Amino acid sequence: MDEFVVYVLASNRTDRLYKGYTSNLIERMKSHNALGSGWTKRYRPWTVVYIEFYTTKGAAMAREKYLRDIDAALPAD
């Protein structure tokens, strides 16, 4: 059975947070911290600060979208 993880990362250098989902958190963290991709590359290194587990990709995607939508709805500092 596949397992999906929704995660929140915190940049060790700034106050930035990143929300995502994956089926392999260890490999995804290696990717974020070693290679970086676009936005995450600018703020590495990253630390996992929150995780949730889901049994379906669809549920994980919906939760990630919800977390991002909440963040987007908050007033800017």
Produce a short descriptive summary:
By secondary structure, the protein is an alpha+beta fold. The protein is built from 3 helices and 3 strands; from the N terminus they run ββααβα. Strand 1 and strand 2 form a beta hairpin.
Keywords:
77 residues; 3 helices; 3-stranded antiparallel beta sheet; GIY-YIG endonuclease; single chain; alpha+beta
Structure description:
- The protein has 77 residues and is of the alpha+beta class.
- The protein has one domain (4-73): GIY-YIG endonuclease, CATH 3.40.1440.10.
- 42% of the residues lie in helices and 30% in strands.
- The chain is built from three helices and three strands.
- The protein has helices at 25-35, 39-42, 57-73, and strands spanning 4-11, 17-22, 46-54.
- A three-stranded antiparallel beta sheet has the order 2-1-3.
- A hairpin with a 5-residue loop joins strand 1 and strand 2 (17-22).
- The protein starts with a strand and ends with a helix.
- The mean pLDDT is 90.
Instruction: Tell me the span between the first and last alpha carbons.
Output: 42 Å
Please count the helical segments.
3
- The CATH class label is Alpha Beta
**Relevant CATH superfamily:** GIY-YIG endonuclease
Can you tell me the CATH topology? GIY-YIG endonuclease
Strand order within the widest sheet? Answer: 2-1-3
Give me the strand/helix succession. EEHHEH
Helix content: 40-55%
Q: pLDDT below 50 for ≥5 consecutive residues: which ranges?
A: none
Task: Give Rg in angstroms.
Answer: 13 Å
CATH-defined architecture? 3-Layer(aba) Sandwich
Q: Find the structural class using helix and strand composition.
A: alpha+beta
Strand content: 25-35%
| Main beta sheet strand tally, sense and closure | 3 strands, antiparallel
